[in-house]
From TrEMBL:
Family matches, as Pfam families: ABC_tran
GO cellular component, one term: plasma membrane
UniProt GO molecular function: ATP binding; ATP hydrolysis activity
Family: Belongs to the ABC transporter superfamily.
Membrane topology: Peripheral membrane protein
Cellular localization per UniProt: Cell membrane
Protein name from the UniProt record: ABC transporter ATP-binding protein
Every ABC transporter domain range: 2-247
Keywords: ATP-binding, Cell membrane, Membrane, Nucleotide-binding, Transport
Record-linked PANTHER family: DIPEPTIDE TRANSPORT ATP-BINDING PROTEIN DPPD, OLIGOPEPTIDE TRANSPORT ATP-BINDING PROTEIN APPD
Length: 267
């Protein structure tokens, strides 16, 4: 089980960024996290991944993984958890790859280091994983450089890496925002399968994906969890103004994969 307890963060100058944020993640479920831009979603993700900006300090709370507080662990220990225990899906998959190294080489190296397997076994696993995400021309994709693939294909490669590593916890940062409808649908379906064995924190404004994937929904505002509940109940009866507006727009012709580009409400 992953438990975030009263996580609090400030800038070095004292500005409050996260205010006693608490929630839990368990394998077999998906928790959605939404809220207006600047509400603290990215700050929270960075804190959990141990990559907070240099001017941000975690000043309270715990981040427990199976009872062990990761905030008290060294950077080396936290790095070792990346991949096999903690997985990450970026908003822009291009940022996850070295543009000067082929996709296959990067996949194989990741599997070799994280799973402690031989190079040949890592290459075989890479090819198998690419086929699992329906990249049928897997040999071409394996040899290609990131710049030669579309965003949707790169997001599938990211999913292939996750499938190969099988992390217990997955953090997804707006993973559908840059995808066309076909790739959005694919990614949502793949995450639905993965959540059978993993716990997923799904950060998004995509109402369709949230309703499809998320059992629980958290709404952030001003660095704190302003509203929470099962997705169905919260969508049916939102209490906070931002959530009401989110649900209203999602139910109109503007909805259906609607994303939040600006906040019409005072923060």
């Amino acid at each position: 089980m992953m438990e975030v307890k009263d996580l609090t963060a400030r800038t070095r100058k004292g500005k409050l960024l996260l205010d006693h944020v608490s929630f839990t993640l368990e394998p077999g479920g998906c928790t959605g996290l939404t809220g207006a831009s600047g509400s603290g979603k990215t700050t929270l993700l960075k804190a959990l991944l141990g990559v907070s900006d240099s001017d941000v300090a975690i000043c309270g709370g715990q981040f427990l993984l199976d009872g062990k507080d990761l905030l008290q662990q060294t950077e080396k220990v936290r790095r070792e958890l990346c991949g096999t225990t903690l997985g990450f899906i970026p908003q822009n998959p291009m940022t996850a790859f070295n543009l000067h190294v082929s996709v296959g080489a990067q996949m194989a190296e990741t599997f070799r280091k994280r799973l402690h397997i031989e190079k040949r076994a890592a290459q075989k696993l890479s090819m198998e994983a690419l086929k699992k995400v329906h990249l049928t021309d897997s040999e071409r994709v394996y040899r290609a450089y990131p710049g030669q693939l579309s965003g949707g294909m790169l997001q599938r490669v990211t999913m292939a890496i996750l499938l190969g590593l099988s992390p217990r916890y997955i953090f997804a940062d707006e993973p559908t925002s840059a995808l066309d409808e076909d790739n959005k649908s694919y990614l949502t379906q793949e995450l639905a399968r993965m959540k059978q064995q993993s716990a997923i924190l799904f950060v998004s404004h995509d109402d369709t994906a949230i309703r499809t994937l998320c059992d629980e929904l958290l709404v952030m505002q001003n660095g704190t969890i302003a509203e929470r509940g099962t997705t169905s109940n919260l969508v049916a009866s939102p209490q906070e103004e931002w959530t009401k507006e989110f649900v209203r727009l999602a139910s109109t012709e503007e909805g259906g994969g609607w994303t939040w580009n600006k906040s019409p409400l005072p923060m």
